[in-house]
């Protein structure tokens, strides 16, 4: 039993995984092909001032499959629409080393537990405060803190430039 890499057309990874899992069930190959992995992590993206969970592929265009090495399993996988090939030499797919497998699995595991926000803001960008005590004020982003999901914005209060720190969901780009 080893781990092999399936190269797919980018964007077809999920469909290839579904088809492969369906064929495994139909042909009762659960003991030959143990699992199909789509390496991904869960992230939070800010859309319309709200955090939306999203799945990000760690390796676009690739799946990892744990299976027995046999000509039949290689042919089955190669016959699935969207699969270009199994990685390896021209005639023989090569399994991942144990070290490579552990690295990928730890990346997947850490991605499942750690959600990060992609910042929709850049330094110097004009934003409008849409909630909280500064609702309705506009200002300029001075600093972005993606790990805390906050921005420092300079707004004008009573004619004076005042820096305030706000959550991503409290502001929106103008």
UniProtKB/TrEMBL annotation:
The keyword ATP-binding does not apply. One of its GO terms (biological process) is transcription antitermination. Keywords: Transcription, Transcription antitermination, Transcription regulation, Transcription termination. Residues 1-108 form the NusG-like N-terminal domain. It holds the Pfam family NusG. GO terms for cellular component: cytosol. Coiled coil: none annotated. The keyword Cytoplasm does not apply. It comes from the Bacteria. Participates in transcription elongation, termination and antitermination. Belongs to the NusG family. This is Transcription termination/antitermination protein NusG. It comes from candidate division WOR-3 bacterium.
């Amino acid at each position: 039993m080893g781990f092999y890499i399936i190269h797919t057309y980018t964007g077809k990874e999920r469909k290839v995984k579904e088809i492969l899992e369906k064929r495994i069930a139909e042909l009762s190959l659960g003991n030959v092909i143990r699992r199909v992995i789509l390496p991904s992590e869960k992230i939070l993206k800010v859309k319309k001032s709200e955090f939306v969970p999203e799945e990000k592929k760690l390796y676009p265009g690739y799946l990892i499959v744990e299976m027995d090495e046999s000509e039949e399993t290689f042919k089955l996988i190669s016959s699935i629409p969207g699969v270009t090939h199994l990685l390896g030499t021209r005639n023989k797919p090569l399994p991942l080393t144990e070290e490579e497998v552990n690295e990928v699995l730890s990346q997947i595991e850490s991605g499942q537990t750690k959600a990060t926000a992609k910042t929709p803001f850049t330094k110097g960008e004009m934003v409008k405060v849409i909630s909280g005590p500064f609702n309705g004020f506009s200002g300029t982003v001075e600093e972005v803190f993606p790990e805390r999901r906050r921005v420092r914005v300079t707004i004008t209060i009573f004619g004076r430039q005042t820096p305030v720190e706000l959550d991503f969901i409290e502001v929106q780009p103008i």
